Structure formats: structure tokens, C-alpha cells
């Protein structure tokens, strides 16, 4: 496509695109989304958004792909998708804008990011909490915990029943 046919208003400039990618990746465990640039056969610059995700299983991979496909069909904006077992690469560019990134691509990328993070990627603090709980469960049995509680209660009762020096001085 020649540069004369490019819809100028839809294209996002390089600096603004960098800012948008920073916003898109903000709060993520990794900077998943990247900007890729290449030269077309006619010498024009093309760019696209790319992301690589890895899933725990083939079934989860396809569950994610079904969500992306449904959204693509409804939004009439179709990414290029490569998948191998539990790995997915998504490429977004707008062909009608000379294979450049537009706001439609960014909106689609935001949808993909949200779906991945909400449905398929556990926040790091949840993973750490699960590990702590598992470790704690491995260290004590319920009978040990019950015994510790009984010992603490008994210790507290014996402390409460003993007179203190202060109590002795009041009785004089």
C-alpha cells in the first residue's frame, strides 16, 4: 500500500506509541507488549504491537485463544496469531493504515492484556501467599497446633492465679 492511501488520522506517532505501550504494560509482572518496526517492500515504515504469552496447559491456551477470537470477531479487528502448544504470539497492526499501529490496535491490546491477567496469570502476591500457606501447613499438624494453644491457655491461667509483688504490697 502506498503512503498516499494511508489514513493519517488513525496512525499513532512513535513518541506517543512509546507512551501508550508504557501505560499498557504498567502494573504487569512483565513488559509483555512490545513495538516492532520494519521496512515494507516499497520502503515505507511498518509497525506492529507484539506480545508473547505462556500458559500452563494446552487447554488454557485454547481457552484464551477462544476469548481473543470472539473479541476479534465482534470488534472486526483481526490480529495475527501464532500458537505452539502452550505459547501464543499475537501481532496487531492496522492494514488499512499502511500496516501501522492505530488506537484500535491499542484497544485490542488492552483487552488481550486484561483477559490474560484476570483469567490466566495469577498475581505474584497470591503465588507467594499460597507458598507461605503451604509451607506453614507442612510445619504443623492440627494436633500440634491444638497442643500449642492448650499450653498457651494453661500458661496464661497459671500466670493469672499467681499473686504479684504489687498484690502482696496492697495486702499489707
Topology of this protein?
Layout: H1 14-25, E1 34-39, E2 45-54, H2 58-75, E3 80-84, E4 87-92, H3 103-119, H4 124-139, H5 142-161, H6 165-171
Antiparallel strand pairs: 1-2, 2-4, 3-4
Helix pairs in contact: 1-3, 2-3
Biased composition (Basic and acidic residues): 159-172
Keywords: Lyase
Region (Disordered): 153-172
Short précis:
InterPro entries: PCD_sf (IPR036428), Pterin_deHydtase (IPR001533). It is an enzyme of class 4 (lyase). The chain has helices spanning 14-25, 58-75, 103-119, 124-139, 142-161, 165-171; strands at residues 34-39, 45-54, 80-84, 87-92.
Radius of gyration: 29 Å
Q: Count up the domains.
A: 2
Percentage of residues assigned to helices:
40-55%
**Coarse structural class:** alpha+beta
CATH superfamily of the largest domain: Transcriptional coactivator/pterin dehydratase
CATH class of the largest domain: Alpha Beta
Run of helices and strands: HEEHEEHHHH
Report the CATH architecture of the largest domain.
Answer: 2-Layer Sandwich
State which percent range the strand residues make up. 15-25%
Number of helices: 6
Mean pLDDT: 82
CATH fold name of the largest domain, please? Answer: Gyrase A, domain 2
Task: Give the distance, in angstroms, between the N- and C-terminal Cα atoms.
Answer: 104 Å
Low-confidence stretches: 1-9
The biggest beta sheet is recorded as: 4 strands, antiparallel
Strand order of the largest sheet: 1-2-4-3
Task: Give the oligomeric state of the chains in this entry, treating copies of one chain as homo and distinct chains as hetero.
Answer: single chain
Number of strands: 4
